[in-house]
């Protein structure tokens, strides 16, 4: 006869089995249309490129990865660094970092402002941040274009004040991409910082002032350390999608100011070099994963430091 | 003696913060306001005002390419959000209110994975796989877009449903079980009605995410499968007329409406 322990064990095993069954549809869909293809892409990155896109199935080649950093001259077979790719890679990292810092410098005071409003007003301010956040990225990018184009608001104001005689060319430069990314990713910085700030105990701030700290010292030594988890989360939430941007540099930066996302897309359209595109995608994934590792480490450190 | 309220030390003040915040709010809405403003322009320019008119809304409404793309976007968003919500609800029930079991962390990581990968990477990976399947099976219908959308909508639908489940009171379900309700009946009569706001929130999030997607759709779509965002992306690369502003304005209105409903749904909960 089965003992009570055996029956309990059996019930538990059955429970776990039904839990796997229940989660199967979600896991299968994500495997088929999100995770699985990433593995296929790894395989494609080590195949020979086809004549008109695609790959020569079953023919292995390291050219895809090789071409990420080097290019072989088609005439004399000499090797050189693939300047174009490196420029794009460097631009992507640079613009994403600047975007992260700029959204932090603007987003921190904004989150602080919202969290210091009277309680019943906070939700409204927060709502004002959330609306652009849920607006289509394409619409926001287009809206930015309205502002920075040669006939746009910025240039109208500058010319109206006679500060410049001819419009300042912002569209189709790195500045355009930068402005667009700051605009588009700003809410992603504010929301997590606000979430941390909301829990901030202002008695600690008051204690700082009681001990004759200046405003800046309180900010630097009390407030910022306490909301650090939010700052780290916001920075990661901005940096990762910024690094993988496609829409913003595509519309605002134009063809000559590509970021990594556009370079990848190019390999699958005009470039017709799928293995290189796959290798570049994996490169992008590696950078994103590194950023995530930094985040996880920081998050656990910040969590432990405050005894939470 | 009462302290003069003006001289009370403002603990929460930081110099310049209010100014920066208000500047940011202004800059956040200036571009959107401009975009909406020129949607009502009578002229063909998106930069020079020539008087008020609704002609661009009319021309967008009459444009069959816009109609088709909008209808396709709507249908894809409905079906993808529905499938994602059903799958996410089942997964949420399977991953909450249990002792940790082998594979639980794996499930979390798996379900949230689409959030971790840059969209462009998922997009080209799907392009690779789907184009191969297209060659093998000859099928090039809407199934690919639908599958892709459902996959990246699942984590968005999953989050609010799981949150709702975790905050839910267990006593009612226990009472149902004590009264010999079979698990399915207990779920249908007790858990599901309590879970409903979470499911609705999950569905709406998934719907908005699907409706907004540009990058993945752009790479997965076959010829003649434009959704509204990919149609707009194509137009932006050409000469823009205020018709794009008009489409954007309507799109924006729908988003704002959905966010407002979502906002109030969530507020009621807390």
Description:
The complex is a heterodimer of chains A (308) and B (270). Chain A is mainly alpha-helical and 308 residues long. Chain A contains 13 helices and 4 strands. In chain A, a hairpin with a 5-residue loop joins strand 1 (47-49) and strand 2. In chain A, helix 7 (174-198) packs antiparallel against helix 11. Chain B is mainly α and 270 residues long. Chain B is 74% helix and 0% strand. Chain B has 11 helices and no strands. The relative contact order of chain B is 0.14. At the A-B interface, helix 1, helix 3, helix 4, helix 5 and helix 8 of A face helix 1, helix 3, helix 4, helix 5 and helix 6 of B.
Biggest β-sheet description of chain B: none
Please bin the fraction of helical residues of chain B. Answer: over 70%
Tell me the radius of gyration of chain B: 24 Å
**Strand-and-helix sequence of chain B, N→C?**
HHHHHHHHHHH
Question: Low-confidence spans of chain B: pLDDT under 50, at least 5 residues?
Answer: none
Mean pLDDT of chain B: 88
Instruction: Tell the overall outline of chain A.
Output: flat
- Structure summary, number of beta strands of chain B: 0
Oligomeric state of the chains present here? heterodimer
- Report, as a whole number of angstroms, the end-to-end distance of chain B: 42 Å
How would a textbook summarize the main sheet of chain A? 2 strands, antiparallel
**Count of separate DSSP helical elements of chain A:** 13
Overall spatial form of chain B: globular
Helix/strand-derived category of chain A reads mainly alpha
Low-confidence stretches of chain A: 304-308
How many helices of chain B? The count is 11
- Kindly report the spatial arrangement of strands forming the biggest sheet of chain A: 1-2
Helical percent range of chain A? over 70%
Report the radius of gyration of chain A as a whole number of Å. 25 Å
Beta content of chain B: under 5%
């Amino acid at each position: 006869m089965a003992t009570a322990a055996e029956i309990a064990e059996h019930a538990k095993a059955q429970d776990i089995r039904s839990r796997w069954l229940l989660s199967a549809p979600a896991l299968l869909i994500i495997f088929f249309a999100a995770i699985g293809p990433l593995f296929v892409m790894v395989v494609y990155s080590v195949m020979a490129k086809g004549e008109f896109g695609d790959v020569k199935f079953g023919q292995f080649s390291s050219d895809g990865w090789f071409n990420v950093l080097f290019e072989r001259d088609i005439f004399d077979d000499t090797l050189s660094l693939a300047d174009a790719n490196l420029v794009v890679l460097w631009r992507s990292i640079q613009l994403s970092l600047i975007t992260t810092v700029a959204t932090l410098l603007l987003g921190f005071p904004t989150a602080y402002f919202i969290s210091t409003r009277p309680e019943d007003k906070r939700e409204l301010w927060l709502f004002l941040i959330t609306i652009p956040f849920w607006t289509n990225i394409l619409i926001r990018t287009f809206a930015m274009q309205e502002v920075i184009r040669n006939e746009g608001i910025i240039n109208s104001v500058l010319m109206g004040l006679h500060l410049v005689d001819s419009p300042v060319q912002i569209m189709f430069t790195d500045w355009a991409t930068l402005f667009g990314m700051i605009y588009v990713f700003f809410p992603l910085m504010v929301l997590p910082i606000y979430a941390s700030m909301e829990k901030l105990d202002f008695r600690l701030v008051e204690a700082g002032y009681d001990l004759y700290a200046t405003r800046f010292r309180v900010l630097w030594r009390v407030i910022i350390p306490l909301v650090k988890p939010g700052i780290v989360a916001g920075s990661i939430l901005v940096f990762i999608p910024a690094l993988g941007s496609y829409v913003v540099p595509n519309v605002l930066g134009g063809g000559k100011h590509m970021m990594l996302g556009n370079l990848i897309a190019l390999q699958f359209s005009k470039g017709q070099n799928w293995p290189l595109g796959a290798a570049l995608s994996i490169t992008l994934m590696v950078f994103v994963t590194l950023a995530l590792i930094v985040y996880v480490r920081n998050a656990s450190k910040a969590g432990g430091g405050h005894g939470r | 003696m009462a302290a003069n309220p003006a001289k009370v030390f403002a603990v929460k003040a930081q110099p310049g913060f209010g100014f920066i915040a208000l500047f940011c709010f202004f800059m956040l809405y200036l571009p959107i306001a401009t975009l909406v403003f020129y949607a009502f322009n009578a002229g063909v320019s998106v930069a020079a005002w020539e008087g008020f008119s609704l002609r661009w809304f009319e021309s967008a409404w009459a444009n069959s390419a816009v109609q088709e793309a909008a209808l396709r976007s709507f249908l894809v968003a409905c079906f993808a959000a529905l499938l994602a919500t059903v799958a996410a609800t089942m997964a949420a029930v399977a991953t909450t209110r249990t002792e940790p079991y082998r594979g639980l962390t794996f499930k979390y990581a798996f379900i949230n994975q689409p959030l971790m990968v840059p969209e462009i990477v998922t997009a080209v990976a799907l392009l690779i796989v789907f184009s191969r399947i297209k060659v093998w099976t000859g099928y090039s219908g809407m199934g690919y877009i639908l599958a892709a959308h459902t996959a990246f909508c699942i984590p968005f639908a999953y989050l609010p449903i799981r949150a709702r489940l975790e905050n839910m009171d267990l006593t009612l379900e226990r009472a149902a079980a004590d009264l010999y309700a079979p698990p399915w009946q207990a779920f249908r009569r007790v858990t599901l009605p309590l879970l409903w706001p979470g499911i609705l929130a999950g569905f709406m999030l998934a719907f908005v995410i699907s409706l907004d997607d540009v990058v993945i759709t752009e790479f997965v779509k076959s010829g003649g499968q434009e959704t509204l965002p990919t149609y707009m992306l194509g137009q932006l690369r050409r000469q823009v007329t205020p018709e794009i502003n008009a489409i954007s304005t309507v799109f924006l209105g729908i988003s704002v409406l959905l966010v407002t409903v979502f906002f109030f749904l969530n507020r009621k909960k807390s």
